[in-house]
Amino acid sequence: MDLGLENPDLLRQAAPVGGRWIDADSSGIAVTNPATGETLGYVPDLGTAETSEAIDAARVAQKAWAARTAKDRSNVLRRWFDLMMANQDDLGRILTAEQGKPLAEAKGEIAYGASFIEWFSEEARRAYGDITPGHAPDKRILSVRQPIGVVAAITPWNFPNAMIARKAAPAFAAGCAMVLKPSEMTPFSAIAMAVLAEEAGLPSGLFSVVTGDAATIGQVMTDSPIVRKLTFTGSTGVGAKLYAQCAPTIKKLGLELGGNAPFIVFDDADLDAAVEGTVIAKFRNNGQTCVCANRIYVQADVYDAFAAKLTDKVASLPTGNGFDEGIVFGPLINDAAVTKVASHIADATSQGASVALGGKAHSIGGTFFEPTILTDVTKDMAIATEETFGPVAPLFKFETEAEVVAAANDTEFGLASYFYSQDHARVWRVSEALDYGMVGVNTGLISTAEAPFGGVKASGLGREGSRHGLDDFLEIKYICMGGI
Ligand code: ADP
User: Fold this and answer.
1) What are the Aldehyde dehydrogenase domain coordinates in residue numbering (predicted)?
2) Ligand 1 pocket test: which of 238, 253, 291 has the largest number of ligand atoms within 8 Å of its C-beta?
3) What is the pLDDT of residue 2?
């Protein structure tokens, strides 16, 4: 398929490992376009030997990188950011081709991912230490912050660029090296980032992208005593498995796992704003984000009005190939995603939910699915407890604030939450009462490089973005100076 790239070299059928490029051959892994089923190309099927090679090279490269000045590292990252933005259109095209999201949304993701590189190019110079009044007259207490060392990263397919940028930028800013295993479904976006990182001047061996069997590569990464941190974004099941695999070598962990976000509309909300917020929080990326609203709670007095407004709005949004102009809903990533979405709808309707919009596979075929709104949804339905990861908005009815806060918190997950209210006292009360790492108040879009992204409970460990995102790649060293 001709993607019409200005710089065709960005779609490279090869992976950068330990400072060399390994070409894909006919035994490589095929990457397909979910909108058409077409094969886009191949990436090499790498395993134990190449992962070890990447880790060894990272160890060497990391020492030299950490020895450079923060300003020097900052300048390289800044060039990487500039190159990502200069190639935004091409990177967006590669992303749409392998992931399916509409081109405008894909280009938005490139800008969003690049913004983390820009932000951490700035934060690189702010890894301050402390001098603390000591415990003895002849002693001084210093703490400095140093890079953790070699970091392994494993990332998913829903944001093929941004999930990498959010990890790689703070890692390199801090002075770490990174060995990345991107999703097997979207490796070309990762490889294109590496091409530009090399052009920006990131030293050889500092950033490897290892494509191949996930479990094999993950095992080598987690077994290695050289790897001091694992940063993972994906499902809670795989995250928990990797957590256990990291135990013997006592690695630091950053885990961005599943969510089951509540989205609460109180009867004092601006309903039109709440509808706009729902469209963003629920339907962005076709419902395939870990911060997507999964349970929409609407207070009884405004339930019918909200359902009608939301249905009107969503019905007007077009579905199709992400390369076509004006498309809002692309395909789902694969057949398994379609099966899960359909099973949640079937389960809900069999227990009394009604379909206000959509409800079935789209007539376009393939993995396209109709954006769906369900009403009369209750807590016993699977959709109330499992992450749907698809374009289904289930509307639950509630009566009181206490009832809805308890319902919202009744989940093992704790990533994002949202609510709409114009009552300031309620805004404070509910923000404080929600057991989540993030709360969106009167907004459906919360993620930005300046803010700490992350969850509590089974949604993960650590924060990405903000100044805290840099901390996650630094160790504190205490230096006690005596004899003064
Ligand atoms: P999703 O449902 O978003 O695909 P996964 O947790 O299955 O979430 O996948 C996220 C990332 O984890 C992908 O890069 C995938 O290849 C990788 N992965 C899946 N299973 C394992 C495993 N056993 N070890 C290491 N990585 C894995």
Assistant:
1) 21-479
2) 238
3) 86
